[in-house]
Amino acid sequence: MQQRDAGALDSARVTSHCVNHASFVKGDAVQTYIGPCDAVGGRTLAVFKVGTRQGDVYMSVGRTEFGNEERAVVEVRRDALVGLWRNEMPGSIRAPLRRSTHADAMRQKLELADEGFQFGAHDPVPLVEVRCRLRPHLAPRVVNGTAAINSTSRPYVSIVDGAARTLWLASQGAACFPVECSVAEAPLLARLAGMPQSPWLRVSEMLPQ
């Protein structure tokens, strides 16, 4: 608890610094986005503040050596994202928890995620990285007494990095939070799970050189 309280004090100082670090216009519509902030290690990160039952926690994304034009941040609704995640593999979220070995591993990952979220805005955790795609879906149906196959597309989300962070945020009541995906998949993810009136942003827009 003391660590979380100390992190909250540091977060207040860093948040104040972030607001004055640089001007950003398009990001103003993103509810969780604070702005560019100086973080541990001297890096400048785009930092987000996410409300949970344990108070505000902080997440971030930083520039890489290349590809920042093709990396996007989308602010998503928790329930919509989890629903799309379930579409990836039915029962993939719940089934492992019924097997003791997987349950123990998941508990350890959730504990590590909880520790990571305690450090506040001066050392924010990385955004969850996801993919959002369409998968062909075949469903049997009957037309005029004749069996047929109806072919549709089912959207799904896969977690590339950050499954434990996603489950922790969901379990702690975070109504929305930012995730990273490719620019090519950002419009689909924003349409299916994005927050209303919240635009998706390129990492290069949030952290220009």
Description:
- The protein is α+β, with helices and mostly antiparallel strands.
- Helix content is about 35%, strand content about 35%.
- The chain has helices at about 1-20, 80-90, 100-115, 165-170, 185-195, 205, and strands spanning about 35-40, 45-50, 55-60, 70-75, 125, 130-145, 145-160, 175-180, 200.
- The strands form 2 sheets. The chain has a 5-stranded mixed beta sheet. The chain has a 4-stranded mixed beta sheet with strand order 1-2-3-5, covered by helices on one side.
- A hairpin with a 5-residue loop joins strand 1 (about 35-40) and strand 2 (about 45-50).
- Helix 3 (about 100-115) crosses helix 4 (about 165-170).
- The longest helix is centred in the first third of the chain and has 20 residues, at about 1-20.
